[in-house]
Amino acid sequence: MSFEYPQDLKYLDTHEYVRLDGEIGTIGITEFAIDQMGDVVFLELPDIGDLVTKGETFGTIESVKAVEDLNSPVTGTVIERNEALLDSPEQIAEDPYGEAWLLKVRVNDPDEVLDGLSADQYRALVEGE
Q1: Where is each Lipoyl-binding domain found (predicted)?
Q2: Which residues pair with 26 in a beta bridge?
Q3: What is the pLDDT of residues 72-128, one digit of tens each?
Q4: Domains plus CATH for the chain?
Q5: Distance CA 115, CA 23 (A)
Q6: pTM greater than the 0.70 cutoff
Q7: CB neighbours (10 Å) of residue 121?
Q8: What share of the chain is helix, strand, coil (3-state, %, to 5)?
C-alpha cells in the first residue's frame, strides 16, 4: 500500500502531524499510523480551552489492536476538537489529512513546528529507507 505524506505538514516520529495556518495548528494522525492500528474504536481528546504541550500526551486513540497515546507537535490552547470523530472514531481512516483532523490549537510559538520532520524525513522513518 502506498501512503500519502502531504508536504505542507510537519510530522512527529510518534505519527502525529501539524498543519500551521498563521497561529492555528491543525493536529492529526498520519495515514500510516491509522493503517498500522487497524479499526479505530475509541478516541479521547482534550476539551476546548485546555492547554496542550509540545511532546506531551493530549489524548488516546484505541483500536481493536492497541491503545496509543496522542502526542502534541506544538504548545497551545485547544480552540476546536473534531466532535464528529469522537462520535464515529472509525471515520478517521477515511480522510486523515482532511476532514479527520483531531484538534485545532492556537499555537503559542509557530516556530516550534520547525523542529518537526518534513514529509520526506517522515516517509524515510516509517518506510525504513
Answers
A1: 24-106
A2: 19, 104
A3: 999 999 999 999 999 999 999 999 999 999 999 999 999 999 999 999 999 999 998
A4: 21-122 (2.40.50.100)
A5: 16
A6: yes
A7: 13
A8: 25, 35, 40
> Rounded to an integer, what distance in angstroms lies between the CA atom of residue 59 and that of residue 66?
14
Neighbours of 127 (CB within 10 A): 10
Name, in order, each residue with C-beta under 8 angstroms of 128's C-beta and a sequence gap of 6 or more.
none
- The secondary structure of 27-81 as a DSSP string is EEE-HHHHHHH-SEEEEE-PPTT-EE-BTSEEEEEEESS-EEEEEBSS-EEEEEE
- Bridge partners (DSSP) of residue 103 are 27, 81
Residue carrying C-alpha cell 511532546: 55
Three cell numbers, residue 117: 520532520
Q: Quick check: 18 and 44 in contact, CB under 8 A?
A: no
Q: In sequence order, which residues have a C-beta less than 8 Å from that of residue 36 and are 6 or more positions away?
A: none
